[in-house]
Design goal:
The protein is mostly helical. 71% of the residues lie in helices and 0% in strands. It is built from eleven helices and no strands. The chain is elongated and about 60 Å long.
Amino acid sequence: MPKQTFFNLPKEKRESLISAAMKEFSRAPLAEASIANIIKDAAIPRGSFYQYFEDKEDIFYFLLEEYSSTLNQRFRSILVKKDGDLIPTFIESYRMMLESIQNKEFRYFFKNAFLNMNYRIENTISKSISEEKRNSRFAEVAKLVNMDLLNIQHEAELFHVVKIIRAVTFQNLIQVFALDLSMEESIKNYTLDLHLIKNGVYKK
């Protein structure tokens, strides 16, 4: 996470540094990204960078954390709009994710992230359902789900159903980048996957 000195910066300078980092991580995956390029684009000394972040991993995972938080808030909003219906909520949320990556810089940032996926990247994006967050973020989502629609009895079962759907979501996103799928193709594949899951967990 950023140091407090980062949050003390004027908004314009924070946004400039974040924009420079996004640009660099869009150019290259984390392992190949360069702090030199980030500070050059942000027009700050190297020493200043280390006053704000520990290293390039620190700022990279901060960007993912911010995106994860936005996804979680958006997911909950859609879930309320869909009256707690889980599968349509995931499909609508997935569509919105694909729409967001139509932006060229966002697309290459997430392409580099998903095609170089490791446990930490996956866990950062999906923290809303990780074990350590089960009693906070997941609990907030769980209370919005209409359990009457589902062929499950307990929140623990819901937790595992959501984990399965998240895994399917990640796989579909990876295919978007690996196979260069169009938005329409990816939504069609994802909808089919989720309808198969729905057949298994929804009441008849």
